[in-house]
């Protein structure tokens, strides 16, 4: 176990997109970061990239973990504690989307969406709550504007994100008296690899992953007396329809 004065963060789904942007922003704040992926190779590759870009003496390490499994999340948290000795920030970012009408979406797609986007954050906080209580830490979920705005072909995704938004707010009430801060961030269109998108210049109008990273940094720097518990984030000027 490493003795460190750095704060320590765990980010699920941190190998690309929003999770990667958050990891880089925290690393730039001299915070040690663990990122998870269902692929060990991808986790270690992303950690290597982040360490190579680091401007501080904090470090990143990659872990294979699956948010759909409570045991896997418990093992990830234990690995972080063995590596760094503490856990101060947990970002439940891992997510996916299946979009189809109720006539076409399969039971398997429904289950995978709920298991990843809703049960995943449950597993993550269940695994880390004792460590966060000890550090008076911060638990942040990445929900979506789809967690308050429904749309056609969004039955599974809307259900998962509506559920995640409500879940996070209830957890906030459960843990606030124990010194654990809890927030959910609800982005609109973000330039990521989500749902097969390939970020390009045409995404310039969208929220960028580093913008969400900056927002997470702002949250953890907020005066402890103040808690922005639910944050909606939109592109400033989306294309005209």
Automatic annotation (TrEMBL):
Gene3D superfamilies: NAD(P)-binding Rossmann-like Domain (3.40.50.720). One of its GO terms (biological process) is monocarboxylic acid metabolic process. It comes from the Bacteria. SUPFAM superfamilies: NAD(P)-binding Rossmann-fold domains. InterPro entries: KR_dom, NAD(P)-bd_dom_sf, Sc_DH/Rdtase_CS, SDR, SDR_fam. Residues 7-207 form the Ketoreductase domain. Pfam families: adh_short. PROSITE patterns: ADH_SHORT. Belongs to the short-chain dehydrogenases/reductases (SDR) family. This is Short-chain dehydrogenase. It comes from Mangrovimonas yunxiaonensis.
């Amino acid at each position: 176990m490493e003795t460190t004065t750095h704060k320590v963060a765990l980010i699920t789904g941190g190998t690309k997109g929003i999770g990667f942007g958050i990891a880089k922003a925290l690393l730039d704040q001299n915070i040690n970061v663990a990122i998870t992926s269902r692929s060990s190779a991808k986790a270690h590759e992303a950690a290597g990239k982040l360490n190579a870009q680091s401007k501080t003496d904090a470090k990143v390490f990659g872990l294979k973990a699956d948010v759909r499994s409570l045991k896997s999340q418990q093992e990830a948290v234990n690995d972080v504690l063995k590596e760094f000795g503490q856990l101060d920030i947990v970002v439940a970012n891992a997510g996916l989307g299946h979009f189809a009408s109720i006539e076409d979406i399969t039971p398997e797609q429904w289950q995978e969406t709920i298991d990843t986007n809703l049960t995943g954050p449950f597993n993550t906080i269940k695994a880390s709550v004792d460590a966060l209580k000890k550090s008076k830490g911060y638990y942040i979920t990445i929900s979506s504007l789809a967690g308050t705005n429904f749309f056609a072909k969004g039955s599974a995704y809307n259900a998962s994100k509506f559920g995640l938004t409500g879940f996070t707010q209830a957890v906030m009430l459960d843990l606030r008296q124990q010194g654990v801060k809890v927030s959910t961030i609800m982005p609109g269109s973000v330039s990521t690899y989500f749902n097969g998108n390939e970020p390009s210049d045409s995404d310039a109008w969208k929220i960028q992953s580093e913008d969400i990273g900056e927002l997470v940094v702002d949250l953890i720097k907020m005066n402890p007396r103040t808690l922005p518990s639910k944050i909606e984030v939109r592109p400033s000027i989306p294309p005209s329809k």
